[in-house]
Amino acid sequence: MVNLAGIVPLSTVDMRDKSAIVIFFSGCPFRCIYCQNYEYLESKNPVELDFVKEHIDRAAEFVDGAVFTGGEPTMQRDPLKELLEYSHEKGLITEIQTNGCDYPAIKDLLPYLDIISMDVKAPLNAKRYGEICGIDERFAERTVENIKSILSIKERKIEVKTTVYKEFVLGDFLEKIKEDLPKDIDWIIQRGNDERVPPNFNLTPLSDDEVKDIAKILSKDRKNVWIRTRAGDERIS
Ligand code: SF4
Asked: Is any atom of ligand 1 closer than 6 Å to the C-beta of 99?
């Protein structure tokens, strides 16, 4: 069984330059202040794995890949592993979208994973991480260490995503994240918005042009910086 939040049979925006089926897992141990999948965090919808496999079978005829997202998919490691393996056997490119809280799970899933898309939501220190993710400092400490370990994986393509709001541009927030990331990694600066957000949300969205200007500044001495806005993905450097 898998606690499933939903399936999008065909997406052209979730796996870069590829079409993909997107499978949303329920549940997440974080409570990020801007979570846009808020309704998935505690939803309960257990379904048989065969139900998901049937969707994968149908999608495999016309998509390039399968994206597993959430929520936090590594929270359901066993069903995730089975579905990743199944997708691989079908010849699909597999991608996981993770918050990086569980490095041992990612290591375990690696044989069936082609792309790791991981959030780096704040500078990699426990206090700042905990504030953004709504988790206590001990959990934030473990998460920061797990994220660093995932960033050191060499055998797979890793892309990092950072969601930005106007408040995050102040001070050294983004420059500190930049210092924490390997120089050659794909880094996506994603425009945060104010739809489907938690009740206590009080951040200010940036315009697409503002996100682009920020990414240009951040990309001065590094390659592979992208933006993700309402217009889609755009490479900045
Ligand atoms: S990690 Fe993702 S799904 Fe979980 S609370 Fe944060 S934004 Fe929401």
From this structure: yes
